[in-house]
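Is it possible to get an amino acid sequence alongside its tokenized fold?
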Amino acid sequence: MAKKNFLYPADWVKTKPYMAVDSVDIYYTGIANRIHDILKETKLDSIFSTPHAMRTAVMSITGWFEDVISQNGIWQAFTSECEQMYGTKLPFYTIGDNYYADEINQQDVEFLLWHNLQTVTRTQRIINPTSPVLKLAAEFIYHMLEDEYETAPENERLHNFIYADVDRSVAPAHYVEVATWFHYKSFINIENFDEFMTVNGEFMQNAHDDPQQLEAVSWGMYLTMMLKGHRSLLALTTPEWLSRLAKGHDTLKLWKDVKVRKASCYLVETIEDGKLTLNDLVDGDSITVTAEGLDFPTKDFEAGKTTVICEFIKFDRQLHRVGTIAVNDMGESVEQYVAQEKENRSDKNQKAINKAFLKASDNNFVMFFKDKAETERFLTEKMGYQFAQGVKLPEFKTERNIMLMASPKTGLTVQPGFLGCLNTDRNPYFNKEEAAKNTLPVIARANAIPYDVICRMLDDGMLSEATYTGGDSPEADKALAQDNLKFIVDYYYHNNRTK
């Protein structure tokens, strides 16, 4: 009986900007199945909880191989940016003279395999990047791909899609098309489509609009997440990734300076000669957009009365609307929307809280307390905070070891239970053994501590005991974590990170 494949060409082309299968797609589907077999042989398949997760992983590693063979430049953009940010082309692994940036390397396979394994167990299990079984599987995969390297076919359809020399009039649309593919289907963004499906599913469950309106909102959400989402390696947005991909390619030069303008509510000020002047009611400035850039009928627009809520990208020095648009007359509902947006964007409260906290804490951004009662005394007696009648601190699983943190970006954050992980003379609850065991899991949660605060903790040496386990030696495991701690924090905080 013929062996049943794990993956079929119809599955493979779901990651492509085209639908028809050709011989190149059949070839890479075969490579993906061989990678799947290696993961099964080395028992790493047991980490994947669903066939979908396993399929995503093997297609991601295969997509990397296809990217290198086809000279699409995505992996080179990653390693170049990684070197700029962290001083090495790859975290965790030694890069020597035998590492070739434009070819395949065993370290690349090890990193991608670690990333795919860590993705499916992000908050439940810390994967050691130097785990012996991971290294063994990566070695098998690398040698298999090395044998294929000289004869593997380039995917010209995919390369031409990315680097197409299109007419300037359609360049914005082509950019959005490539950006959407890159964000949701490229091998380097293995989590983004599942993230959209989760967010969209939650929205649909709680929505009560008509189906047509829901579809429009869903599409707008799809594009907004593509333009602004940081859920990627190195926590770059897709426009930031494409600007790096464009380096050295004259056909993509317009990609280098694409800017995303935050969705806002605009009042139409003037309509003249195919151009509209729009006043941003939230931020207060004015912009000019052509009727083509707005891409919406304007015959019923009235200056001083019509408002539009939409999102723009600035491409080739012109604004172009992306996603959905809501058109309304100025009125109470629009005024309420604008007021809410102004409040959402303001950091006035956060700055005020941070100032009060620093004053009460002798200029410390984090304070440590033995229990809730001591925490509440600090808030009321030191900061002068007044709890509303019947309101107290949130209920936690433990009322011991409470931490208060403040910053001008995120205001005040309260978190119990992690004090043993933070190494500072001001923390009487620090415990070296507990810190070695729990610091990486705390970082992996990525919501326990605000990103800007944990970066300060990193800079101040508070995460000094973070360590991996299961490697060659405890000393090597600790050095691995400490030498790559900035990357590790950014990696787990990718979706919460702010620039």
Observations:
- The chain has a mean pLDDT of 91.
- The CA atoms of residues 81 and 87 lie 9 Å apart.
- The chain has 19 helices and eight strands.
- The first strand starts at residue 259 and ends at 272.
